[in-house]
User: Fold this.
Amino acid sequence: ATLLKIDEHDYIHGIESIFNQDERNLKKFAFKLFDTNADGIVSDNDMFEVMKLCNGIKTEPVVQNEFGFKQ
Assistant:
């Protein structure tokens, strides 16, 4: 995986553009961060993916079969 590198100015500008929005757009942005597969639902797998990203862990997502058992 290629890492994106940005300088301090671009980072600050990006953060400002995110947080200088109205409440509705901030909520949409936050939801999109957690909806990692963009299916419109924040699932257990989405939360697991976010936690992995925060911790730098590279593992496969947990998949449940039709009976609710993890595969």
